[in-house]
Write a structure and sequence with these properties.
Strand 2, helix 2 and strand 3 form a beta-alpha-beta unit. The strands form three sheets. The chain has a six-stranded parallel β-sheet. Strands 3-2-4 form a three-stranded parallel β-sheet, sandwiched between helices. It has ten helices and eleven strands. It folds into two domains: 90 residues, Leucine Dehydrogenase, chain A, domain 1 (Rossmann fold); 134 residues, Rossmann fold (3-Layer(aba) Sandwich), CATH 3.40.50. By secondary structure, the chain is of the alpha/beta class.
């Protein structure tokens, strides 16, 4: 078994981005600028946005956060989106999800200028990705593809099973894995909570991407020997073995499944760091105007 070390890969990419930023900003040019809209006080969202800000600083980006209370009105939030759409100093921005129940997430996502949609959630970018045009690809699927690429895992002709059908991970990564690219060129099966005979399907997978959102859902009985496993899940559970009293686990029972896997991504230190670095890559593309040039 070999670990796909997302943290190590992400650090390599950040070094590459920092060098590129230094080159692009020679002669007193402004650096790339990534902004985030954060609504409410969700701890996971606050942690992610803070991590994004730290990563920006590491690679030489500017970053800013527009934080609002959870009772912000939808019209007010839309005005902030429009402000960022029109700010020439902002190259890309994200609206951190989830949003409060009284706000229509799709309305907010569709209000973002596709040229600044570095989260890759706008229908225009999703559509462009689907038909193989240059697009901002959402950060987690893009990070997964980069992990497979840099780990030099051959995917062509393999059977890829994706557990989860969310618009953020499952659906886009299934499209990317079936595309005529490398990594890609796989035959993809998408499974979800209503799938019958799930164990029999997952045992056929050469590559198993797990984004089902259920703690340690995949066990050794659900995979075959030699499988490549990408664990997208992240859950905080109590632990008497850590100073904090908590530890992070994924959607996969790592100790069991790693005994059968040829490659596996850990939690933490797998997909998580790749998600953040993919956001930086998209922002650099926006700064260079590489997608909608």
């Amino acid at each position: 078994m070999k670990l796909i070390d997302g943290k190590k890969i992400a650090e390599q990419i950040k070094t590459e981005i920092a060098l590129k930023v230094k080159e692009l900003t020679a002669g007193d040019k402004r650096p790339p600028h990534l902004a985030a809209i954060l609504v409410g006080n969700d701890p996971a969202s606050e942690t992610y946005v803070a991590s994004k800000a730290r990563a920006c600083k590491e690679v030489g980006f500017d970053s800013s956060t527009y934080k609002f209370e959870s009772d912000i009105s939808e019209p007010e939030l839309l005005r902030t989106v429009e402000f960022l759409n029109n700010d020439p100093e902002i190259d890309g921005f994200i609206v951190q999800l989830p949003l409060p129940d009284h706000i229509d997430e799709q309305k907010i996502i569709q209000a973002v200028n596709p040229h600044k949609d570095v989260d890759g959630f706008h229908p225009e970018n999703v559509g462009r990705m689907t038909i193989g045009l240059p697009a901002y690809i959402s950060a987690t699927p893009n990070g997964i593809m980069e992990m497979l690429r840099r780990a030099k895992i051959n995917t062509t002709g393999k059977h890829c099973v994706v557990l989860g059908r969310s618009n953020i991970v499952g659906r886009p990564v299934s499209i990317l894995m079936s595309a005529a690219t490398e990594p890609g060129n796989t035959t993809v099966t998408v499974c979800h909570s209503k799938t019958s005979g799930l164990k029999e399907i997952t045992k056929q997978a050469d590559i198993l991407i797990v984004a089902i959102g259920k703690q340690e859902f995949v066990n050794a009985e659900m995979v075959k020997d030699g499988v490549v496993v990408i664990d997208v899940g992240i859950h905080r559970i109590e632990s008497s073995r850590t100073k904090s009293g908590f530890k992070l686990v994924g959607d996969v029972k790592f100790d069991e499944v790693s005994e059968k896997a040829s490659y596996i991504s850990p939690v933490p230190g797998g997909v998580g760091p790749m998600t953040i670095v993919s956001l930086l890559q998209n922002t650099l593309k926006a700064y260079q105007n590489l997608i909608y040039s």
